[in-house]
Amino acid sequence: MTEEKMSSYQLGMIIISFFIGSALAINPAVIAKQDAWLAFLFGWGGGLILLWVAIKIAELHPKKSLVGILIDCFGRVLGKLIALVYGWYFIHLSAEVIRTYASYTTTVTYPETPLLFFSVSYSLVVIYSLKVGIETIGRISEVFVPFIILVVLFTFSASLSSMDISNFQPILSQGFLPPLTAGFTTMILPFGEFIIFLMVLPNLNHQNSFKKTSLLAYLIVGCILFIVVCRNLLVLGADMLARDIFPSHIVFRLIPGIDVAPLLDINLIMAGIVKTSICIYASAKLITEVFGLLNYRILLLPLTAFAVSLSMMVRGTVMEQVTVTMEIWPIYSIPFQIIIPLTLLLFSLFNRKNYNHNRT
Amino acid sequence: MSKNIKKPLKYLKRSKTNTLTQAQKIDEAIEKIPKDIRNVEDLLKNTFENSSDLIIRKISLGRKGRNLSIPVLIIFIDGIIDKKLINSDIIKPLMQQNISFNFNALSINEAFLDFLKESLIVNCNIDEIRDFHESIDGILNGNALVYVDGIGKALKVSVQGGNMRSVEEPLTESVVRGPREGFTESILTNTSLLRRKIKNSLLRFETLTIGKQTKTEIIICYIKGIANQEIVDEVKRRLNRIKADSILESGNIEEYIEDAPFSLFPTIANSEKPDIVASKVLEGRIAILCDGTPFVLTVPHLFIEVLQAGEDYYSRWVYSLLVRFIRLMAFWISTMIPAYYVALISFHQDVIPFKLLLTMSASREGIPFSAFSEALIMIFTFELLREAGVRMPRPIGQAISIVGALVIGDAAVRAGLVSIPMVVVIAITAISSFIIPQIAGGLLIIRLLLLIAANIVGIFGIIIGTLLLFIHMCSLKSFNIPYLSPITPLEASDLKDSFIRYPIWALLLKPRSFFRKT
């Protein structure tokens, strides 16, 4: 098997579709009602700090994946243990995405078809794209992302007529607390997941461009999702926005003249497939490195099958799904997205000082 | 998983039976041409076993009698040589000079052969041959072989000829504007057509012989310095790896060297027109010419070439810009429209505008089939008619088209078998697939698969199917160049000649995609 490399442009595109993946369907910023846009900005800003932490860790450990970094900082045994926990987290994350997507489809378009059918057919595409390699996933997202951006811009301009600017008011009616808590959730839900790219990083052909690429991609993703949040808020109003399970879908249906709801389906699957593939790829790669296996490809099928069955178990109804995703999932993610990365950063900064000290 | 699939496929591989006959095996033992001419004659008769098209012409030089005459054999195969050339180049000078030179059997030595070669035989291309098999190959390739008694060498005189089709306008790629010449079955004519277009000493032709039985001549053509040397080496490596008995058409080579033999998309292009092949060679592609067919292969083949036609570059660029879009639309229409129609009719009636829905349901009233089976019937009927139209002799083809028009169009609707919208859908699909003939076969299969997917879960099925198709196209490579480049991986400067065509003075001649480092 030849080594799979991707260009920084492709990595940027993967990052963009990764973040859009689930945020198009469920965006936690909507809890803040008419301040959703503000909450989103808070979350985006908070995510920037997490992004900086991840980039800094990667810079301090050049050419190493998350497993290598963990082993560097915590030693072989503890490092590998934590790495395995991360592997679990990535699988869990992919199960979340699969579930979100499947329940979106059953709720919105096919109420009588069983959930499993969609999970399975969706994961078939994931398996195929993983089978042909991470390089191909980069190429796929190169085409997907411009398409998604076009659709977002199109729906924004098409729904201009049904927008009401007064939906922004009253600004900060309950003080800063609701947008801040919603912002924290937003920071965790799509943006904190960036830590997963530490597993993809060794595939980049120009390692130095990682920082620039991810910052640029992060900026673009912020803009896209900001447009989406504002569009949904302006069209639906604060009350509807907080009450709808999938606000984007309602907005698509409200576009006058034509029914473009299938476009949202396409967008969701496109971004979702990239996100799920990256999650599964990351955990497969992680397990391979922890146990010193030769080829990660053999793990792809079992891991995806596991993720599908997990996605069937983690939630009951759609309402439960949304509540858990918005309220419990962020708390569950805190150690993986904040605590361990921060510890890693501290450890590696400390190590580097020691290292430099020893050398001089 | 893939191993389990590949196992049964092993049986598809051609068994390596030994195709050499007994006679050929005996021959391989003898290498040098025997000195005695009677042995040569026996050997030749053994080899060809009195094949009726082998002609052995005996001449004797010098005076008759007293064993002083020198027997000379002229061997050639009738039909693939030019008899006039043999008469005028070999037989006439030998016989005429026979009188004036007074040959003597005693004076026979190697110098005599040189004398024949340098001073007697009137031909521009003569080779001296020691090996007997080489001499047989020479005979088979349309040369006349001249054996002289007592020397153990032969002269190969190039007298190729026979009946060949002249350069005509090809039937497959007709143009309104542009050169009308097309390649022929003769490989020499084909190389000359290319050489006349590209007058550059760096244009290289490299010859290979492939096929144990057919010994087909294959020529690789590229411009040194423009073509990527890595791809050239790869092409040579793959061609040399071919172990086949027969190569009758370039399609046979294509199947041996293509990257994805199980894919629906071809990764090697073919063309019948010298101007198209020349432009591709100028872009840095490599052409593979095969003797006996007017179809010339070019590699690497990218998806974007399906949308390009030679005429785009000869007509006004604003118009060809539009035409490119039409071809892209044709690709999507011919793969998706039946599937979308079935999905909308059976699952997503709410997406159809209300008035259209009324007309459609009115026209579907009384049709006994579901939209899916209707579509299947129509696609199948159309393919039957198309196949019949292609295979039929021309005069009957007319009748087929009339019957087809009546059956597909009017009669089927009146009989209540299919609805009118379905006829429209299938007609549009069929016309679109004619616009991009290179991948029409693959498109049919994709169309059917998407139709089935649409029948199961509507638009969701189409989306999943399309994504699988797209991922598949992304994963394809043609001689290490990604099939979908320059779209993905993105090569911005090459996009000038993709879905759009810039004016010819704004185009780069040499696409950068071929030189991307992976």
The largest inter-chain interface, given as chain pair and residues per side, is: A-B, 33 and 25 residues
The helix content of chain A is over 70%
Number of helices of chain B: 18
Largest sheet of chain B: 5 strands, antiparallel
**CATH architectural designation of chain A:** Up-down Bundle
Shape of chain B: elongated
Could you name the CATH class of chain A? Mainly Alpha
Whole-number average pLDDT of chain A? 90
- Counting structural domains of chain B, the number is 3
Query: Which blocks of ≥5 consecutive residues of chain A have pLDDT under 50?
Result: none
Kindly report how far apart the N and C termini of chain A lie. 42 Å
Strand proportion of chain B, as a percent range, falls in 5-15%
Number of domains of chain A: 1
Keywords (chain A): Germination, Membrane, Transmembrane, Transmembrane helix, Transport
InterPro entries (chain A): Spore_GerAB
Membrane topology (chain A): Multi-pass membrane protein
Protein name (chain A): Spore germination protein KB
What does this structure look like?
The complex is a heterodimer of chains A (360) and B (518). Chain A has 13 helices and no strands. With 360 residues, chain A is mostly helical. Chain A is globular. In chain B, 31% of the residues are buried. Chain B is built from 18 helices and twelve strands. Chain B has three domains: 22-158, no CATH class; 187-301, no CATH class; 317-475, no CATH class. Chain B has helices spanning 2-10, 22-29, 37-48, 83-101, 110-120, 132-140, 187-197, 229-241, 250-257, 274-282, 304-307, 317-346, 354-364, 371-391, 394-414, 420-435, 440-457, 459-475, and strands at residues 54-61, 70-77, 126-129, 143-148, 154-158, 203-210, 216-223, 269-271, 286-290, 296-299, 477-478, 481-482. Chain B is elongated, with a radius of gyration of 30 Å. In chain B, strands 1-2-4-5-3 form a five-stranded antiparallel β-sheet, with helices on both faces. A five-stranded antiparallel β-sheet of chain B has the order 6-7-9-10-8, sandwiched between helices. Chain B has 518 residues and is α+β, with helices and mostly antiparallel strands. Helix content of chain B is 48%, strand content 12%. The interface between A and B is medium-sized, with 33 and 25 residues. Chain B: InterPro entries: Spore_Ger (IPR004995), UPF0353/GerABKA_families (IPR050768). Chain B: This is Spore germination protein KA. Chain B: Pfam families: GerA. Chain B: The chain crosses the membrane at residues 325-347, 396-413, 419-436, 448-471.
